[in-house]
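User: I'm designing a mutation panel for CCD42 protein and want to avoid disrupting the core. Could you give me a predicted structure to guide residue selection? Please restate the sequence first so the numbering is unambiguous.

Assistant: Good idea. Sequence first, for numbering, then the predicted structure tokens:
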Amino acid sequence: ELRGRTVPARDAATLLPSTRVLLKRREVAEVEQELQSQREEFRQRMERLAQRREQLARREEEQRDVVLKYDAFLKAAGARRERALRREGQERARAEAEAARLHRELEGLLQHRERLARRLRSLRRFGDYLRDALASMGQFQDVPAMLVHFAVLAEARATLAQEAEAGQEQLAQGRARLQRCQKEMSTEILSTNNELAQLQTRLEAARQDVLQWESCWAHVQSTATQKTLLLGQIKLAVLNLFQLCTARLRIPMDVALEDTEAQLDMV
């Protein structure tokens, strides 16, 4: 009848020793059961914590690999960009040098043509004299031969002008390629910076999770320590009760000091 209800403190003194022992054993059993349940819960929490730590370790390793890959990517991208800029600078320098050379040649030819034109205008009034001079000098057979010579010069000038125009076109194409490369590199760097910011945010969240679980683990250890102390106090109380009973009833103490259940049975 006493198993299903709690005996008031004022009636505990009137109970039989065996009844009090049964009540005490029931209380100890309940404490043991509660302790066992807490141990099981603690074990499960420890398993979950271990799994969480393994996950965090894997995530940190993955993030470390991502950071290393990102550093390697940045280095490779920087090297590619430097090579592209170097090539573009060399091409631009060659194109500018070629354009300058053609421009100088063109200026020289134009100046030469202008000199020839001025000379022709100045000598036009002396046509008759030139015809006589051609006959005497023998440099040209006739005036048309002289015109053919100047036509050749004009053709050479046109060819040089075309070459100068082609050089300008190549220079414009090189500048366009440089602008495209710069735009692509800017887009790639922006995307990489965004990815790095996301990874840093994930790393900070993982660190916060680690701190939270470490605090929980410390709390679990503190609770387990308190329960262990309580269990030790219970065992000590049982030992004192056992020694008191055996001393009063003069029963031999043939039970080990660590065997709490045997002590309770003996009592």
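For picking mutation sites, this is relevant: The chain is about 90% helix and 0% strand. The chain has a mean pLDDT of 83.
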